[in-house]
Design brief:
Number of helices: 9
Largest sheet: none
CATH class of the largest domain: Mainly Alpha
Structural class: mainly alpha
Order of helices and strands: HHHHHHHHH
Strand content: under 5%
Helix content: over 70%
Length: 211
C-alpha cells in the first residue's frame, strides 16, 4: 500500500479532476467532462474507493447521454448501479438516483417499458428512505415518459403530487419545471389535434431531472 500521505494526495487529485469535470459538464462541454472524469475514475479504482467510482460512472453516463451516445451511457450507468448494489459498496440513495437516470435514458431510446420499471424501482427506494424531493423528481420524470408516449391524461394526473412536494420543500427550480409541465400537458389535453398548435407556445416539457 502507498504511504498515507501519498493516498491523501491521490484522492485530492481525483477530487480536483472530478470538480473540473463537473465544471465542464455544467458548461455543456461533455467531451471534456468525460476526459476529466475518466482520469478521476482511474485514481479512485487504484485507491479501491468503490463509492467514488460509482459516483463518477454515473456522471460519465449522464455526459454520454447528452452526447446522444446512448450505448456508452447505458454501460456507465449500469456499472454505477452494480457498484451501489454490491454488498461492500451498498448505497441505496445513489442506487435510486442511478435508476432514475436509467429511466431517462430508456425514454430517450423509446424503451418505455424499461423506463417505467426503472422509475418504479427508484420511487420505491425514495419512499423507503422518505426522501420526498427525490420522489418528486422521479414522479416528474415518469410523467414526462407518459407525455412522450402521448398519454397526456396519465402524465397530467401525476404532476400535482410532484408540484405539492416541491412547494412544501420550497424547492424553486423543481417547482418551476413542474409548473411548466402542468401547463404544457394541460394544453395538449385541450387541443383537438395535439400535433398542431397555433405556433405561439413551446409545448415540449423541460428536460427531466438528473442527479
Amino acid at each position: 500500500m502507498p504511504p498515507e500521505d501519498s493516498l491523501l494526495e491521490s484522492k485530492t487529485r481525483a477530487n480536483q479532476l472530478l470538480l473540473e469535470g463537473t465544471t465542464s459538464f455544467d458548461n455543456k462541454d461533455y467531451e471534456a467532462a468525460i476526459a476529466l472524469y475518466q482520469q478521476a475514475i482511474e485514481i479512485f479504482r487504484e485507491l479501491q474507493l468503490k463509492r467514488d467510482e460509482g459516483l463518477v460512472l454515473n456522471a460519465i453516463g449522464l455526459s454520454y447521454y447528452y452526447l446522444s451516445s446512448y450505448t456508452k451511457a447505458k454501460q456507465s450507468l449500469e456499472e454505477s448501479l452494480t457498484i451501489f448494489r454490491a454488498e461492500d459498496s451498498r448505497d441505496i440513495q445513489q442506487e435510486g438516483r442511478v435508476l432514475n437516470n436509467l429511466g431517462i435514458l430508456y425514454d430517450a431510446t423509446e424503451d418505455f417499458a424499461q423506463a417505467k420499471e426503472s422509475y418504479e424501482l427508484a420511487l420505491k427506494i425514495f419512499e423507503e428512505t422518505e426522501d420526498q424531493v427525490e420522489q418528486a423528481k422521479v414522479i416528474n420524470n415518469s410523467s414526462y415518459s407518459q407525455y412522450l408516449q402521448q398519454d397526456y391524461k396519465s402524465a397530467y394526473e401525476k404532476l400535482p403530487m410532484a408540484f405539492n412536494i416541491f412547494r412544501e420543500a420550497n424547492a424553486q427550480p423543481g417547482l418551476e419545471i413542474v409548473r411548466r409541465n402542468l401547463i404544457n400537458t394541460a394544453m395538449r389535453l385541450v387541443e383537438e389535434k395535439p400535433d398542431k398548435g397555433d405556433g405561439n407556445h413551446d409545448k415540449s416539457p423541460p428536460p427531466p431531472f438528473e442527479k
